[in-house]
Amino acid sequence: MLVFGNNIIELDVVDSTNDYLINLSKQNNIYEGTVIFSHCQLNGRGQRNSEWISNPGENLMCSIFIKPSFLSPSNYFLISKIIAIAVQKVVSSICIDSLVEIKWPNDIYVNKEKIGGILIENQFRGVSIYQSVIGLGLNINQTYFESIIATSLKLKTEKEYLVKDILKKVLVEFEKLYLALKRNDFYKVENLYLRSLMNYDKRAIYRVRSQRVIGKIKNVKNNGLLEVEINNSIEYFSFKEILFEI
Amino acid sequence: MKLSEIQDLIKFVARAGVNEVEIEHKDFKIVIKSDYLAKKKSNFKEEPQIIQQQMPMAMQQAMPMATAPAPVAPVAAPVEAPATPVAKEENNYVTIKSQMIGTFYRSPSPDKPAFVSVGDTIKEGDTICIVEAMKLFNEIESEISGKIVKVLVDDTTPVEFDQPLFLVDPS
User: Fold this and answer.
1) pLDDT tens per residue, chain B (171 residues)?
2) Is the Cβ pair B133, A76 closer than 8 Å?
3) B46 shares contact with chain A (CB less than 8 Å)
4) Residue B159's beta-bridge partner residues?
């Protein structure tokens, strides 16, 4: 039986919680559900080349360790779906008057402003993932963001939160969804993801091959491809092949 | 049919959600089957993975222009001659292939050195590259020990499912 969060390693400062956890997993045999949680991250990473900027102590920065070898390669995006759903659920339970959405592939937005990001690093051997490190950054008590459009729980609710409490809530939701995947209950995860997905089944403007187009998101496949209806035909997009206009 | 054309075709079939595509031209035949539709009901969504190529492998190299009309010298006769040097090389060496569609990275981040270079000795479990797919960063570890003979893909370029990435001398 998994218990996420029974083994939380709390650090005052770290370069990157993902790097720390990956190195730890190479040196020791660590359990699924192990979590690294740091008050300050010096070299937090977002997408390759982009940094995740966070003031010390104000935000949630953590990494979760799982061994999802039961998933086939074409379904790996389900990991991305479950962490996004878990975070969306926790944020929307706090920001009850706001619209909390998942922006494909896995960013979290509150009223069209970014509040959280996810970076997943899988270790692959042969044809399957034998371990996966899920990095999560979620803005909690930070109220000033330099030159980026972002928000936090405090900005939305005018209250302070204990970062560790938010982490525990996310882990509770994450564990439920992870167990659903282990039971092969993909249907539940697919539905929950679409239900919170920004622009799902709505006409919206996108940028595709540097053209502005009107499209309607119909689905996100379990390999991550975005299915969009454009001019009555279906097209599939990889990350960065289509841009949202928010 | 060129390798890149076959890859494009597989990608097209995967994205279209078509169940089966069969193309036959002279003595070249390719069948791409997808279990996507068959498994849809049981919530399994898989990309096509089965490629049946009913043609001797050597033919593939002998027939670079499968779609063009056959020249006077019949291309049809399967080349029974020994495989080309490349194929021979590949018999001795082991090819490490990509398990997914994505972007190939040779280093952990742009400012860091490559995981492996030609001539490097690797052992089982060593990280050799990253393939990024949909914001999932997949660190690929070697299943074999040996020496890197060739890096077959350029840094930060797209790779297809089953595309060869490295040539390794396991001896």
Assistant:
1) 766 677 776 766 666 666 676 777 777 777 776 654 444 334 433 444 443 434 444 444 444 444 444 444 444 444 444 333 333 455 689 999 998 889 999 998 888 899 999 999 999 989 999 999 888 899 999 989 999 999 999 999 999 888 999 999 987
2) yes
3) yes
4) B102
Question: Quick one: which of A155, A153, A29, A132 has its CA closest to A83?
Answer: A132
3 state SS of B11: helix
pTM of the model: 0.75
CA distance A198 to chain B (A): 17
Percentage with pLDDT > 70 across chain A = 94
Other CB atoms within a 10 A radius of the CB of residue A99 amount to: 12
Spell out which residues of chain B touch residue A136, defining contact as CB-CB under 8 Å.
none
Chain A: closest CA distance from residue B119 (Å): 22
User: What is the C-alpha separation between A31 and A2, in angstroms, rounded?
Assistant: 9
CA distance A108 to A91: 9
ipTM greater than 0.85, yes or no? Answer: no
User: What is the domain partition of chain B in residue ranges?
Assistant: 3-62, 90-169
Residue A112 burial class via C-beta count within 10 angstroms: exposed 0-12, middle 13-18, buried 19 and up: middle
What fold does the segment set A8-195 form as a domain? BirA Bifunctional Protein; domain 2 (3.30.930)
What residue segments make up the domains of chain A, in order of their start?
A: 8-195, 203-244
Cβ-Cβ contacts under 8 Å, A106 against chain B: 135
Q: Which residue has better confidence, A208 or B82? A: A208
B94-104: b (≥16 Cβ within 10 Å) or e: bbbbbbbbbbb
Using N-to-C axis directions, what is the helix angle for A163-182 and A186-195, rounded to 10°?
130
- Token duo for residue B45: 């969504």
The structure tokens listed for B155 are 């840094």
Residue B106 to residue B97: CA distance in whole angstroms: 14
Torsion of the alpha carbons at B141, A49, A136 and A68, rounded to the nearest 10: -20
Do B139 and A186 lie within an 8 Å CB cutoff?
A: no
Note whether B39 contacts A: Cβ–Cβ < 8 A: no
CATH code at B90-169: 2.40.50.100
Query: B99: nearest CA in chain A?
Result: A127
